[in-house]
Design a protein that fits this description.
Length: 300
């Protein structure tokens, strides 16, 4: 690896959102802590970063997010109670999240948008490329995406975003990319980006899903990015500038993801994620599938 392509080791996870779609569950509990089977959603995201080789994790949090810090910290009281009981299995589960990565936290203060949340990471990240993982997107661990994005960044430099083809009536929920093919079938060159366009104005059906590997020049751009869609500072708008002017921190490539992704920020998808992951678990799956089959048969 050359000096211009330092190894990527830092992941940034914006987690300051209010989680209003899950009220009242999220009145006193951060949405990131809602369980997907028996693990908080956020732990899957941190595990994904670690399995892509990124074990320095910065969470951008806000008020009422203390449980996130506690979850990734030691809990000596619980550990010693489990030790006394000789419950090694549960003790390992408790220790797993605190041993996972080196965790750092910064508060966003004013929730001024995703671009602003990423900018809060600038002092920690410095001048290296880094990853951003959005907590609402859960990528199935069997379909590694971030690892591929890191590879593509090391090959091309600049920034890399994750893209997924969606139905035209869905595109208004996402950032959308205009792309050209490259020699690799899963990689495209991004030449334009627009945040949440109406279906009629969308340049393609390639939606940005919540994984990014970013060139640190993004911070200079974010500092100057005016509020965009929804009055918020949009990461998509800053990336659009990187894509438009390759001389400053470009180019922008996209990795086209065809694997399993769950949007745990949406209640229906959240339930589907739990059912699918529970079915596939060795410990819970066999019983749960049997029950599910008879439940579905009764309902039809
Ligand atoms: C954010 C981004 C959007 C992206 C989406 C992926 O939007 O602004 O470009 O497509 O995440 O989940 P949000 O869903 O936070 O409104």
């Amino acid at each position: 690896m050359t000096q211009s392509h330092p190894r990527i080791s830092k992941a940034v996870i914006p987690a300051a959102g209010l989680g209003t779609r899950f009220l009242p569950a999220t009145k006193a509990t951060p949405k990131e802590m809602l369980p997907v089977v028996d693990k908080p959603a956020i732990q899957y995201v941190v595990e994904e970063a670690v399995s892509a080789g990124l074990d320095d994790v910065l969470m951008v949090t806000g008020r009422n997010k203390r449980p996130l810090e506690d979850h990734f910290d030691r809990n000596y009281e619980l550990e010693s109670a489990l030790q006394k009981k000789g419950d090694a299995g549960r003790l390992a589960k408790v220790q797993e999240s605190s041993d996972l990565a080196t965790m750092h936290y910064v508060r966003q203060g004013d929730p001024k948008g995703l671009g602003h949340a990423v900018l809060c990471a600038a002092p920690h990240v410095g001048h290296e490329p880094f990853a951003v993982l959005l907590g609402d997107d859960l990528i199935d661990p069997r379909d590694p995406l971030l690892k591929r994005m890191v590879e593509v960044q090391e090959q091309h430099g600049g920034s890399v975003i994750a893209l997924m083809e969606v139905a035209p009536e869905q595109i208004h929920l996402y950032g959308c990319a205009a792309v050209d093919p490259t020699a690799d079938s899963d990689v495209v060159k991004v030449h334009d980006l627009v945040e949440k366009p109406a279906a009629a104005d969308a340049p393609s059906n390639y939606a940005i899903i919540g994984r990014y590997v970013l060139d640190p020049h993004i911070f200079d751009i974010l500092r100057k990015t005016e509020p965009g869609r929804g009055g918020e500072i949009q990461l998509t708008d800053a990336l659009q500038q990187l894509a438009a002017d390759e001389k400053v921190g470009g180019p922008v490539h996209g990795v086209v993801f065809k694997g399993r992704r769950y949007d745990t920020g949406d209640r229906g998808d959240y339930l589907r994620a739990i059912v699918r992951l529970a079915c596939e678990r060795e410990d819970l799956g066999p019983d749960f599938r049997t029950w599910l089959r008879s439940y579905v048969a009764e309902e039809m």
